Amino acid sequence: MKILFFSTDFPPNLGGVATLSYEQALHLARLGNEVTVETLDFGPLPVACAQTPGLTVHNHRVAPRPVMRLVPLSKIALQAIRRTEAELFYASTHRGFGVPMGIAARFQGKPYVIYVHGSEVLTELKSASRKLTISCLLHHAALLITNSKNTAHSVLANNFPERLPPIKVIHPGIDQERLSAPQAKKDAILLRREWLASRGKSTDTVVLLSLCRLSRQKGIDCTLQALKMFL
Q1: Where would I find the H helices in 109-181?
Q2: Distance, CA of 116 to CA of 98 (rounded, Å)
Q3: What pLDDT, in 10s, does the model give residues 58-115?
Q4: Counting Cβ atoms within 10 Å, is residue 197 exposed (0-12), middle (13-18) or buried (19+)?
Q5: 112, 136 in Cβ contact below 8 A?
Q6: What is the Cα–Cα distance from 195 to 111, expressed in whole angstroms?
Q7: pLDDT > 90? residue 34
Q8: Whole-number Å distance between alpha carbons of 146 and 118
Q9: In 10 A of CB 112, how many CB atoms?
Q10: pTM of the shown model
Q11: Alpha helix locations (H) across 94-175?
Q12: Is the peptide bond before 12 cis (omega within 30 degrees of 0)?
């Protein structure tokens, strides 16, 4: 299948959405699809982008202003649609390319899919015009994919009860082949020992690691409060 993949967050930019976008594009191509990614220019792309058959990534320099950038993003989307003749449009987040993609898909008669993370949709509910826009965008999608059951129910179903297409929950995964490689395990054990030793801790110390921004919806404070009950 020819998939036109839109994302305003992609490596080498840091963050969960950038990583998820990259891994999704990479593995969709490895499954045999022809994937064309339209994203923003954050610097040199990962080597795998050029080495993966079926994957093409175009990164564009666009002004960072949220509203004004809709004009160049729309132009990029239209040019990509004409160039690729894709069968399916996909956005790893509705932000940025979502509205241009949705409008173009409607005119082209092509289906589009949006991945919903949670908080990025809740921010659109703060004004009537933004809520109407996101409601129309979600309603006309062929499918919505969410990262959790909570996002599917608490974010989507509760706020858009009558304007939703089918919803599929697909939890963000990991590359088991890469992380279970013998050298990866050896590197992890060595890194753990060195890190604990640098802090004067024994090798049987329990370490909790959270790779995320310290924002309220991550619930780090709840985790710390829960741990206090057992210490």
Answers
A1: 119-122, 128-139, 149-150, 158-159, 176-179
A2: 11
A3: 999 987 676 678 889 999 999 999 899 899 999 999 999 999 999 999 888 999 999 9
A4: exposed
A5: no
A6: 49
A7: yes
A8: 8
A9: 23
A10: 0.85
A11: 98-108, 119-122, 128-139, 149-150, 158-159
A12: yes
